[in-house]
Write a structure and sequence with these properties.
This protein is α/β, with parallel strands linked by helices and 685 residues long. It is 33% helix and 21% strand. α11 links the parallel β7 and β8. It starts with a helix and ends with a strand. It binds beta-D-galactopyranose. Beta-D-galactopyranose (GAL) binds next to loops.
Length: 685
């Protein structure tokens, strides 16, 4: 039965991909596919056919086009030329290739910024940006928004009903802020709307410190360097809201002229933190990100966490809109991924919930800033070596699409992540090596290894589906977030707070209680003092003997039923013999505070303890170190994905017989070579 259902999905998906006149898909995505960034505007039209033929051979199912082509789309003000793009989209369709249409606002044409210099961004030192690179626009400029909206609208009118166009990408990698007078006024208005009165703002920012009190809104500066923590956090929130409204202008223009089946997304950047991605993602159909290794090789922990982070923006599967076909051009040393690693990485993406993987780029422009970047075809227009590996990925995705369609990673464990907290810690690290993302990864690595699936979500996300919630360095804790966490514990969840949690209010002010602030009472304990460490301090207790690096918090238990799990050994005297981890049962729930940065082995034991206590019972499969194991599921079946990142071959015994999706047949054990991948389904036909 199940097999038939899968076969039906497969047929539908492939029919819409391969039909001679491509029918519009009813869903907002295609199940599993590879794509490429293609820039037809850089080549004579006579070349397009060859490009698309080679793409089709490589099982490429979509091209992303247009995102830097404004000067071709509107060569002079109000003169639009989209006919060439219509022809490119049509030709792609003939090759059974869908199109993701990029709006071109990341690179305004020279005539535009010449005529409207106010659309150029003002750098933090007051100088104006110039034409010649990209992202030179001011995201807060009303004029720029008007021009970008008009362009997006033109595109939507032309392509909003085009069956070959499956969706939209707004702009490209939001990044640069602007600090000119218009932005300053907007920021002051934003503050007024948020704080209401200057008295309120002054009090919440504690501006009597250093005579910072404001008597007029116009006095408040912009920017986020070396300022009052309340001011800096507000600025970052304003920046995020401004990206959201900038994006919304284009989304609205497109929505008004397009069919609802077309998705709208934008390409984000993993752990990049210059805006709050939860804010910006709200208006998108799904999140997408650009996944570049840069120098070195795939780090499955960091990269996997970035996938899970992106999946958490909207709590659903996502796209990898761009990834490197081998190498980039912007690192110090732009080594290539090893042979086989591009494929391993693509499957690692899917394992974490990616439904599409796009390669940047198809072919390099013959001039321009990125001549050295990895591509799929060379400057002569014929395939480079990595083309065949990408083609293999494409063929495998086609084979696996029906099995993976509708499946997603489903976690019983969540890690909380907040931009407010990351900013707050990064502005006052107190120990310069204290990186809040590394703190998150120290938990993530073991949680992922032992529980197989981990969500990374915002502190305000619904938490009731999770048996265990871990909050590393949740430094800023708003009242609403505290309430969500308290509720979670009271409903029977196990909450683990990591170092530096619950220290700050929503205004980045110190909580009037010690850490973890509003959770102190529930914990029946608190942080007596924090210490930035010169060298690791020893630890001992329930999770064995280990050490804490960079940071150590001396904890105290005030409630009689708060237990001490770990204690510090001899170090700076203050910490000697003091609690390093405490826990308290609350009804059916539990709250734990870990004041130490646990070393790998101790973390492994701590995670084992957390999972057991929370009754998380992961699939029992013995996965060797260096093999990435992930599960995607829907209501009927599970798909298991193994990726061997070890230099040597690995054998894995499966606890049950499974269908080998890529090779056919049934298997009950695996032998995986270096970078080898196995995709298995629990559904045995
Ligand atoms: C991305 C960008 C692409 C291209 C790529 C090169 O950040 O979106 O346009 O520049 O980097 O790695």
């Amino acid at each position: 039965m199940k097999y038939k259902a899968i076969a039906a999905i497969f047929y539908f998906a492939m029919a819409s991909l391969a039909g001679s006149s491509m029918a519009a898909t009813s869903s907002k995505t295609i199940p599993l596919s590879i794509g490429v960034a293609w820039y037809p505007e850089q080549w004579p039209e006579s070349r397009w056919e060859d490009d698309l033929t080679l793409m089709e051979k490589a099982h490429v199912h979509w091209v992303r086009v247009g995102e830097f082509a404004w000067s071709r789309m509107e060569p002079s003000e109000g003169v639009y030329d989209l006919d060439w793009l219509v022809r490119a989209v049509e030709l792609a369709g003939k090759h059974h290739i869908f199109v993701v249409m990029g709006t071109p606002s990341a690179s305004p044409p020279a005539w535009l910024t010449q005529k409207y210099p106010e659309t150029l961004r003002t750098k933090e030192d007051g100088r104006k940006d110039e034409h010649g690179n990209r992202q030179q626009f001011d995201w807060s400029s009303p004029k720029y928004r008007e021009l970008a909206r008009a362009m997006a609208e033109r595109l939507a009118v032309r392509f909003g009903h085009d069956p070959n166009v499956i969706g939209w990408q707004i702009d490209n990698e939001y990044a640069e802020q602007s600090f000119g007078p218009t932005t300053r006024t907007q920021f002051q208005q934003w503050l007024k709307a948020r704080y209401g009165t200057l008295d309120n703002l002054n009090q919440r920012w504690a501006t009597s410190y250093w005579s910072q009190s404001y008597t007029a809104w116009e006095q408040i500066p912009v920017g986020a360097t070396r300022g009052n923590p309340g001011l800096m956090l507000s600025w970052q929130r304003f920046v995020s809201d401004t990206w959201r409204s900038y994006q919304k202008v284009q989304i609205d223009a497109i929505r008004a002229h397009s069919e609802p089946r077309q998705f709208i997304t934008t390409n984000m950047m993993g752990f990049f933190d210059r805006y709050d991605h939860y804010t910006v993602a709200q208006d998108l159909d799904f999140a997408a990100w650009d996944d570049y290794v840069g120098q070195g090789h795939l780090d499955p922990t960091r990269n996997g966490a970035a996938h899970d982070l992106t999946r958490g923006f909207l709590r659903k599967n996502f796209w990898v809109m761009e990834t490197q076909p081998g190498f980039v051009n912007w690192s110090q040393d732009n080594n290539a991924l090893d042979k086989g690693e591009v494929r391993a990485m693509a499957w690692h993406d899917v394992a974490h919930g990616a439904d599409a993987v796009g390669y940047w780029q198809w072919r390099s422009a013959l001039n321009g800033q990125e001549e050295y970047h990895g591509t799929l075809i060379g400057s002569d227009g014929t395939p480079v070596p990595v083309y065949s590996e990408v083609a293999q990925v494409g063929a495998e995705f086609d084979r696996a699409a029906a099995w993976l369609s509708g499946t997603e990673p489903q976690a019983e464990v969540a890690i909380l992540h907040s931009y407010d907290s990351r900013w707050a810690v990064n502005w006052q690290r107190h120990n310069q090596s204290y990186d809040p993302v590394d703190a998150l990864l120290s938990y993530y690595k073991q949680l992922r290894r032992q529980a197989h699936t981990v969500d990374i979500v915002a502190p305000l996300a619904p938490l009731s589906r999770y048996k265990l919630v871990v909050a590393p360095a949740l430094n800023v804790l708003s009242d609403g977030e505290a309430k969500n966490l308290i509720e979670y514990v009271r409903q029977g969840g196990h909450l683990v707070l990591g170092q530096r949690s619950g220290m700050k209010t929503v205004d980045n002010a110190l909580q009037p209680q010690r850490q973890p602030g509003p959770l102190t009472e529930l914990l029946g304990g608190r942080v007596e003092q924090y210490y930035a460490l010169e060298s690791p301090v020893p630890l001992d207790g329930q999770w064995g003997s280990g050490s804490s690096k960079l940071w150590a918090e001396q904890l105290g238990a005030s409630a009689p039923d708060t237990e001490v799990l770990m204690r510090y050994g001899r170090s700076n005297g203050w910490l000697d013999g003091q609690p390093a981890a405490i826990t308290r049962r609350v009804g059916n729930g539990r709250i734990t505070y870990i004041g130490a940065w646990l070393d790998g082995m101790t973390m492994s034991h701590a995670v084992e303890w957390m999972l057991t206590d929370a009754k998380v019972r992961p699939v029992a499969v013995d996965v060797p170190e260096g093999v990435e194991f992930s599960i995607r599921r829907d209501a009927q079946h599970e798909v298991w994905i193994f990726v061997n990142l070890n230099a040597g071959a690995q054998r894995i015994k499966l606890p049950q017989t499974m269908t080998d999706v890529l090779h056919g047949g049934n298997v009950n054990q695996l032998s995986l070579d270096h970078f080898d991948v196995s995709v298995l389904s629990s559904n045995v036909p």
